[in-house]
Amino acid sequence: MEQGANTNPELAAVIRAVPPAALRANYTAFLDEPGVHAQLAGSSVPMLMYAGTADVWHDPMRQFAEHTGTPFLSLPDADHLAGWHRAHDMLPEIQRFLDAEPG
After folding, report:
1. Domain ranges for the chain
2. Record's InterPro entries (predicted)?
3. In this structure, are residues 49 and 64 in contact, taking their beta carbons and an 8 Å threshold?
């Protein structure tokens, strides 16, 4: 959370003003959120998923990908924010995925 606040100065004060217990409660609430798993799993659109190995969502995304047969890539040593900032590291794999898809 602190790392995210430091990368966006406009939001830093807002994030720091939120009590840590409230942030944990929000995170916990969303862990049980059903999300869009069924819709994604039933989609006919080809998907490729990736997450950083230090991202809290890495393992849930990987498990979803394994369950649905969706290709999944791990970005070493990247947390959630670094996953966005290092998306360029995934470009060769993304290009291979796109080249393999018909159309």
Report:
1. 1-33, 36-103
2. AB_hydrolase_fold
3. yes
